[in-house]
Amino acid sequence: MEKLAKQVKILKALVIVLTIIVLAFIAMMTRLLNNNNHFKLLTAERVDIVEPDGKIRMTISNRESQHPGTIDGKVLPKRDRPAGMIFFNDDGDECGGLVYDGDKKSASMTYSIDQYHNDQIMHLEYSQDNAGVKPQRSYGLKLWDKYDEFTTTNLMAYVDSLHKLNDTKAYNAGIQKLKASGRLTNERLFVGKNKEGEVGLFLRDAKGRARLKIYINQQNQPVMETLDEKGQVIASR
Question: Transmembrane region positions (predicted)?
Fold first, then answer.
């Protein structure tokens, strides 16, 4: 009995010590959460900025933990996305971001602004491909047209229906039909330097077809070209 009494005393002492440690830890964490603290260095794989109700507004993340995005309030399946920041609107849907990557093969950095319920309508981007003898670079501002009645949700549903056909020819035909309708992502404007080394203004029509180019070519000569619907130059000076 005497030995048992000693063991009970030891257990009581351990419980008291553990309780003190836990309370001290809780007090420390409470101070950290409730006070404005200055951190010289914060290391994290991902940081989510949320509203008081927990609704996400911005994610800062590495590549592995990057948010897959949301459409109509639904989180998309996990996918490979570059590191950077992803922004979310009041509905909780992705509405743009700043992402970047780069290695010996290629490099890029993009600031993207999305249209409500749709994909990007504005890009400020840099891209580089090192596969060839010389690196191919492109950088500048891009604008796209989007259609309110054909949202990203509609696009995903349409593409999924084509995949279910298990027919490559039918899939390609469906995509071509969609492109011809003008409801896909249609680039309208690019201002910057393209992969051909031309620096200038490049305009496209509502179906994404190049129609006007005003640029300086690689020989430092000013060029202005007007193109028809098939991309053929019909006027140049």
Answer: 12-33
